[in-house]
Amino acid sequence: MLLIKQFPSFGFRVLTALIIGAACFALYFHRAAIVIAADSHWKLPNKTPSTFSIPKKIWYKLGPRGMGPEILNWTDSCLLKNPTFTREFLTDTSADQYVKTHFSHLPDLVETYLSLPIPILKADLLRYLLLLAEGGIWNDLDVSCENISIHEWIPEQFRLDAKLVVGLEFDVGYDHDFPRQFATWTVLARPGSRHLQTVVDDILNEIKATKHMYNLTSTSELSLGMVGDVVDYTGPRRLAVSVLKSLSEQLGEIVNERNVSRLLSPKLIEDVLILPGYAFALSANKYDGVKWPNGTDFVHGSPLVTHHYAGSWKNSNGGEIV
């Protein structure tokens, strides 16, 4: 696996970024929310104890075309503003080896992952597996970090309890109701999240159901036409549905989209921190005219990342080809 660390001559730029970040953090609204204690039940070999903070590592997955200047600039922005973090770029080969090594105790999962012929499905599953095994931050290649340091993304009052951090995608400023989903281009987690385990289990079950429906003998026979909307199958909608289901099971009561809709500030439910739309998806939300419940004007906080919507997976192959 290729480990790329911070370039050494960034001193002045790092100091400038940290000063700007401190100023922007004052604009980021942190409010109270639901906190109910519980333990994660899913175990991984040599798993880091759940009391540890989110690891300071950013994960990326390269496509067959590798990394051009634009991607390098976007990914560099995260290290520039977070000089104590490391990053790792996985290739197709190193990602396959990672899954074989870290999930050898789950041979059915390994076989399914290695056999997936659709790149975006494989990339979606990979992000959940990486965060399960080691935790850290997953970023898509077309994500750049803004001026608030990652250390400040989790409000201080939630840092002890938050084990999974997700951000709403489309949420505020629409005059009709619709299913909510969590952005998958940036996800933070401690290792061993029971909620991410549910996401993985649900994806594996979905793949089994599709194979049964189409009478397939191997996962390698799957096609995009069989799986339907990738957003629902492995992407942002899958992440939201499975995490809310897992929270419901953990709490013994229904947790649904009404609990996470039209958020104006971060909300902690059990050990999952849900960030408002402006955090990871400012361009997908509309805050003009929005007010707090007390009638005062709402001014959104600073975005944490910008997603540049390169959309390399949106083609008939479901992913980048050479």
Task: Give a brief outline of the structure.
It comes from Blastomyces parvus. Helices cover 34% and strands 12% of the residues. It has helices at residues 11-25, 69-81, 92-102, 107-115, 119-133, 194-213, 224-227, 230-233, 236-251, 277-280, and strands at 2-4, 57-61, 86-90, 136-139, 143-145, 164-167, 186-189, 267-269, 272-275, 305-307.
Helix/strand layout:
Blueprint: E1 2-4, H1 11-25, E2 57-61, H2 69-81, E3 86-90, H3 92-102, H4 107-115, H5 119-133, E4 136-139, E5 143-145, E6 164-167, E7 186-189, H6 194-213, H7 224-227, H8 230-233, H9 236-251, E8 267-269, E9 272-275, H10 277-280, E10 305-307
Helix pairs in contact: 5-6, 6-9
Protein traits:
alpha/beta; Spore Coat Polysaccharide Biosynthesis Protein SpsA, Chain A; eight-stranded mixed sheet; two-stranded antiparallel ribbon; 10 helices; disordered N terminus; alpha-1,6-mannosyltransferase activity; Alpha 1,6-mannosyltransferase; Och1-like
Task: Note down, in words, how this protein is organized.
With about 325 residues, the chain is α/β, with parallel strands linked by helices. It has a single domain, classed as Spore Coat Polysaccharide Biosynthesis Protein SpsA, Chain A, CATH 3.90.550. It is about 35% helix and about 10% strand. Strands 1-3-2-4-7-6-9-8 form an 8-stranded mixed β-sheet. Strands 5-10 form a two-stranded antiparallel ribbon. Strand 8 and strand 9 form a beta hairpin. The relative contact order is 0.18. One of its GO terms (cellular component) is mannan polymerase complex. One of its GO terms (biological process) is protein N-linked glycosylation. It holds the Pfam family Gly_transf_sug. This is Alpha 1,6-mannosyltransferase. Belongs to the glycosyltransferase 32 family.
